[in-house]
Amino acid sequence: MTDIGAVIAIDGPAGSGKSTISRMVAERVGLPMLDTGAMYRAVTCAVLRSGGDVGDPDVAAAAAEGAVIVVDDVVTIDGADVTTEIRGPEVSANVSIVAAHPGVRTHLRAMQREWMARHGGGVLEGRDIGTVVLPDAPLKIYLTASPEVRAKRRAGDVQGDFDLAAAAANIAERDRIDSTREDSPLRPADDAVIVDTSDLTIDEVVERIVSEARSRGLAREASGKELL
């Protein structure tokens, strides 16, 4: 295995808790965190804003390569804050279509690897981190949950009226697209630790991942004190 530093790869389907849990794990172990799903959402947002066809692989790849996307505490496209917009229903309904285009995935995977190399490690969450982006990651986690639980979690992320049935249908369709695409389909890595979060609290999931990270020596020091 290649030594790529302190990397925790957290993969899983929509609504499995990846973003929230990854941020908490990153804080606990003293590592930076990259939400790669937000990168694909930002590209989708860029295509939609331009009026382009999300199903056109050339249009989507051009958006990925041409837009200046920054994913941090806020997400920006060419300097415009789209943090809220990328979580909206239009982007959610189209992101798996855009993410299936090989040109988009190739460009964003390069950005993700560059981010990891620049930081010397980190917590990266997505759908193909442990299988394709960083297959040599020393800790790979695959989060999952029942479709019903994931739909209810999506309800908690949205203000105002929420159609639970529509959300469940959207999640099921995203699962189908993500798991059957030809380029890096969603699946657990062979050596991933699989965690079903359906009946666990966020703190319980975080504790399990932190324990796995500690056992592999992946926790860093922050301000002279280990965040564990």
What's the shape? globular
Percent strand: 15-25%
Query: Structural class given helices, strands, pairing?
Result: alpha/beta
The CATH topology annotation reads as Rossmann fold
Poorly predicted runs are 222-228
Give the helix level as a range of percent.
Answer: 40-55%
Secondary-structure element series: EHEHHEEEHHEHEHHEHEE
The CATH architecture can be named as 3-Layer(aba) Sandwich
Number of domains: 1
What topology, given as strand order, has the largest sheet? 2-6-1-7-8
Gyration radius over CA: 17 Å
Structure description:
The protein has 228 residues and is of the alpha/beta class. It has a single domain, classed as Rossmann fold, CATH 3.40.50.300. It has a 5-stranded parallel sheet with strand order 2-6-1-7-8. Strand 9 and strand 10 form a beta hairpin. The longest helix is centred in the middle third of the chain and has 18 residues. The two termini are 26 Å apart. The C terminus is likely disordered.
Looking at this protein, list some descriptive labels.
228 residues, alpha/beta, Rossmann fold, five-stranded parallel β-sheet, three-stranded antiparallel β-sheet, 9 helices, disordered C terminus
Write a brief structural summary.
With 228 residues, this protein is of the alpha/beta class.
Layout of secondary structure:
Layout: E1 6-11, H1 18-29, E2 33-35, H2 36-50, H3 57-66, E3 69-71, E4 75-77, E5 80-81, H4 89-99, H5 102-119, E6 121-126, H6 129-133, E7 139-144, H7 147-156, H8 164-180, E8 193-196, H9 202-215, E9 221-222, E10 225-226
Parallel strand pairs: 1-6, 1-7, 2-6, 7-8
Antiparallel strand pairs: 3-4, 4-5, 9-10
Helix pairs in contact: 1-9, 2-3, 2-4, 2-5, 3-5, 4-8, 7-8
